[in-house]
Known about the structure:
The chain crosses the membrane at residues 39-55. Helices cover 68% and strands 0% of the residues. The model has no long low-confidence stretch (mean pLDDT 87). The chain has one domain (10-61). It contains 2 helices and no strands.
Amino acid sequence: MHxxxxxxxxxxxxxxWLGFVLAALQAPASALxxxxxxxxxxxxxxxxxxxxxxxxxxxRRRPARADTD
Length: 69
């Protein structure tokens, strides 16, 4: 059984993980350093990137379609 390819390439997937980690680490740091609630933007970005990574994972875990001609 083969797995279906995801919509992200391997390179895009690595960049998405890097973006997620950086945004997730920036949120608590900016919460400590800045008085306003602008750190919530980092949390929202991290959640959106995580959603894309999870959607790609779900697409990759599906079995590949067997084309019968």
